[in-house]
Design goal:
Elements: H1 11-15, H2 20-28, E1 34-35, H3 48-59, H4 66-70, H5 79-91, E2 101-104, H6 106-118, E3 124-128, H7 133-139, E4 145-149, E5 151-152, E6 155-156, H8 158-165, E7 173-176, H9 190-203, E8 207-210, E9 234-239, E10 251-254, H10 260-271, H11 276-286, H12 290-317, E11 323-324, E12 332-336, H13 343-352, E13 355-356, E14 358-359, E15 372-376, H14 382-399
Parallel strand pairs: 1-13, 3-4, 3-7, 7-8, 8-9
Antiparallel strand pairs: 2-10, 5-6, 9-10, 11-12, 12-15, 14-15
Helix pairs in contact: 3-11, 6-7, 6-10, 8-9, 12-14
Bound molecules: 4'-deoxy-4'-aminopyridoxal-5'-phosphate (PMP).
């Protein structure tokens, strides 16, 4: 039969798929469900008053920046923000010029631009196991051959990485999340960072370092970023989503000079520039050290919630043989249920019992561990966490 539609989809459109998570989350969107499934920061942390004041200042009568902030702007981003980002990275040991900073519409756009600039059909890419689903979504339309590297509680294994590099063509890059990873909450310690960087340098394997959660540490800052260790071999992604608000859609790429012009051209094609008004308002909010006061309040809040969920998991799942990560920052705990259980199959039962999680399978580029699931602990109170983990415990025990 002749097709009735005049549209012929591109190969890359066929490679796109609906977010597995969004489909799963539909099950969880019942009223009254204690939701540990989402990946949202706590709205209680959004600095509404500071944002309101900054908007008023930017748009005040006689303000010199009011009209420029509403005009088309440069594709690279607002100079004040680019300089601020370079200065922040300098504090973490990474020496970069503001000229290397490209302000993006969220760091998610950074992933998309990197995919366009670095991936050909069939290009080999390496990722952690598991990894951030949104990155897989950004990469797959370019039809790469994505390969998972064995990872443990400290992130990607340096020896497994070395082995992978000893065979096959050189991958275009490895995508790494060293701090409080989404989805597992794990962190690469100093020794692992050194070992991984050594292997990457030796084999000339570039790194895409994604760091949206790095500021959300609980007791001490994480070791310095990979960018600080190999400036010409790392493209770094940062974001204002978790330290201010994700609705601003403000993120950034820090790229070596060899890569920057192409990322800029891809940015121009995508949207000309990141909203200038949002950039101006954020520059106004942060200019006097606001984040030095604000971010510690987010850390304290998430720290208490992390304590609550680890205590509740020990109580409810400890006796079942389940295992989970011990995040030292960020928003997530990763649970591995006892052998024989399947998190996806358990989800409807958990929802019936009043709580929701995300099954871990969609976060794997390769063969998934179907026992795994992700819990976000930042949008529930300690009392809700207790109640939610009690419901999870009940469902897991019943399934054993
Ligand atoms: N990378 C990771 C690891 C994330 O978890 C997220 C947000 N869920 C992003 C990138 C995208 O963040 P944004 O576009 O809001 O900066």
């Amino acid at each position: 039969m002749k097709s009735t539609t005049p549209w012929h989809l591109a190969e890359r459109a066929h490679a796109m798929n609906p977010s597995a998570i969004r489909e799963i989350l539909k099950v969880t969107e019942r009223p009254g469900i204690l939701n540990f499934a989402g990946g949202l920061p706590s709205p209680e942390t959004f600095p509404v008053d500071a944002m309101r004041a900054a908007c008023a200042t930017v748009l005040a009568e006689g303000s010199a920046v009011a009209r420029p902030s509403l005009q088309y702007a440069s594709s690279e981003g607002l100079p004040e923000l680019r300089a601020w980002i370079a200065a922040e990275l300098a504090k973490q040991g990474a020496t970069v010029s503001p000229d290397q900073v490209l302000i993006t519409t969220g760091s998610q756009q950074g992933l998309d631009l990197i995919a366009k600039v670095l991936i050909d059909k069939g290009s080999r890419l390496l990722v952690e196991s598991p990894t951030y689903l949104g990155a897989l979504q950004a990469f797959t339309p370019m039809q790469p051959a994505v390969e998972s590297i064995e990872s443990d509680s400290g992130g990607v294994s340096a020896s497994a990485l070395r082995e992978a590099l000893q065979k096959g063509e050189r991958p275009r890059f490895i995508y790494l999340l060293p701090n409080f990873q989404n989805p597992t909450g794990r962190t690469m310690d100093e020794a692992r960072r050194q070992a991984v960087i050594a292997v990457c340098r030796e084999h000339g394997l570039p790194i895409v370092e994604d760091n949206p959660y790095g500021e959300l540490w609980f007791d001490q800052p994480p070791p310095k970023p990979l960018l600080a260790r190999w400036p010409e071999g790392v493209v770094y992604l940062g974001s204002f989503s978790k330290i201010l608000a994700p609705g601003l859609r403000l993120g950034y790429i820090v790229a070596p000079p060899a890569l920057y012009p192409k990322l800029l051209q891809a940015k121009q094609a995508a949207d000309l520039h990141t909203p200038g008004f949002n950039q101006r308002v954020v520059a106004e909010v942060i200019k006097d050290g606001f984040l030095d006061r604000h971010v510690p309040t987010i850390r304290a809040r998430y720290h208490a919630q992390r304590d609550a969920i680890l205590a509740a998991l020990a109580r409810e799942l400890g006796p079942t043989g389940a295992e989970w990560t011990q995040p030292v920052g960020g928003m997530f705990v990763w649970v591995r249920l006892p052998d024989g259980l399947n998190a996806q199959a358990l989800l409807p039962k958990a929802v019936d019992a009043g709580m929701a999680f995300v099954p871990g399978a969609p976060f794997y580029a390769g063969a998934p561990d179907v026992r795994t699931l992700r819990l976000s602990f930042v949008t529930s109170t300690p009392a809700q966490i207790d109640q939610g983990m009690a419901a999870l415990g009940q469902v897991v025990r019943a399934a054993l």
